[in-house]
């Protein structure tokens, strides 16, 4: 994954943001809408695209586009930077392959410790009962 090539493929759109801003809020478009077309990306390999489609299925549109909004600050430029950081972080975490689990057996000593602990526990609980008069 080449982040510089991917950033070139991003599309940005400035929208009027909601929230605080006073008189200024109605004049500026500080909210950023970042759009990335996963299907037609040239920076990602086919394998990477398939992985991202699986992992980001809930975040993608029907046309396989990823849309991220950012309206945290009152500055359009800072919102754009934050949206790019969020987007790249999302891609990096989604492309990480989980390590394969190697099944292991518990060691002999750990099995013996468990058996001994269970015996002590059962003896402790048995001593709490009323004695049987047989």
Written description of the protein model:
One of its GO terms (molecular function) is translation release factor activity. The model has no long low-confidence stretch (mean pLDDT 90). By secondary structure, this protein is α+β, with helices and mostly antiparallel strands. Strands 1-2-3 form a 3-stranded antiparallel sheet, with helices on one face. The N and C termini lie far apart (77 Å). 42% of the residues lie in helices and 13% in strands.
Summarize the structure.
By secondary structure, the chain is of the alpha+beta class.
Distance between the termini: 77 Å
Oligomer: single chain
> What spatial form do the alpha-carbon principal axes imply?
elongated
The CATH topology of one domain, please?
Answer: Double Stranded RNA Binding Domain
Rounded mean pLDDT is 90
Enumerate the strands of the largest sheet in spatial order, edge to edge or round the barrel.
Answer: 1-2-3
Strand content of the residues, in percent?
5-15%
Supply the number of helical segments. Answer: 4
What is the CATH architecture annotation of one domain?
A: 2-Layer Sandwich
SSE succession: HEEHEHH
Taking the sheet with the most strands, its summary is:
3 strands, antiparallel
Q: Output the structural class.
A: alpha+beta
Number of strands: 3
Reading off the top of the CATH hierarchy, the class of one domain is best stated as Alpha Beta
Radius of gyration: 28 Å
The helicity comes to 40-55%
Low-confidence segments = none
Family: Belongs to the prokaryotic/mitochondrial release factor family.
GO molecular function: peptidyl-tRNA hydrolase activity; ribosome binding; translation release factor activity
Pfam families: RF-1 (PF00472)
Organism: Polaribacter dokdonensis DSW-5
């Amino acid at each position: 994954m080449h982040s510089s090539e991917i950033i070139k493929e991003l599309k940005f759109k400035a929208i009027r943001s909601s929230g605080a801003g006073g008189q200024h809020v109605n004049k500026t478009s500080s909210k950023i809408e970042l759009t990335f077309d996963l299907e037609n990306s040239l920076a990602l390999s086919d394998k990477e695209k398939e992985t991202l489609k699986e992992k980001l299925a809930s975040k993608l549109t029907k046309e396989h586009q990823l849309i991220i909004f950012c309206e945290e600050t009152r500055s359009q430029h800072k919102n754009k930077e934050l949206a790019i950081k969020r987007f790249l972080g999302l891609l990096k975490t989604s492309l990480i392959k989980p390590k394969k689990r190697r099944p292991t057996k518990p060691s002999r000593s750990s099995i013996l410790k468990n058996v001994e602990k269970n015996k002590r526990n059962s003896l402790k609980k048995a001593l709490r009962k009323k004695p049987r008069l047989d």
